[in-house]
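Hi C.,

You asked whether I'd gotten around to modeling the 159-residue construct. I have! Everything is below, sequence then structure, no commentary in between.
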Amino acid sequence: MQHGAAKGEEEDPSRPLSSQGLMDITRVASCLSKLDIRVDDIIHSTKLRARQTAEVICKYLKPMKGISEKDGLLPLENPAIWKERLTGLSDNLFLVGHLPHLARLSSLLLCDDAEKNIIAFQMAGVVCLKRNESGIWSLQWMITPQTIVGETVGYCDSL
């Protein structure tokens, strides 16, 4: 998941979520809770806006292991770090991070090339990737705030 929209650095150097960002994350989290998504652990980057996003998601999805902060998820970090970490894990993880890292990680998992830009992430958007028993990743679904607000508010109930 890409964090929600943040305040500008000139407004607040720590860049917390803006009111719009918080509203978007809450809508997406509510939608996810209706889909009976099972999450073992929510992991976020060291940036405040990612932690705030993870906290909102945690309230709705109630992961067994809660939330934790980990390195390797900052915007310009090498996506190979998390590709390697994911190799040995079987938990259902929910990563909260930033662009371009999330896009590069997704491309690396899906086609072994971080520069392909396979998925166009959006703020407060969540993408579900699944690894099969052979270790091959695939895209399962994607939800953005635009998917569930306005005229398509009932979309989440019909997924």
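If it helps when you're writing up: The longest helix spans residues 19-34.

Thanks,
B.
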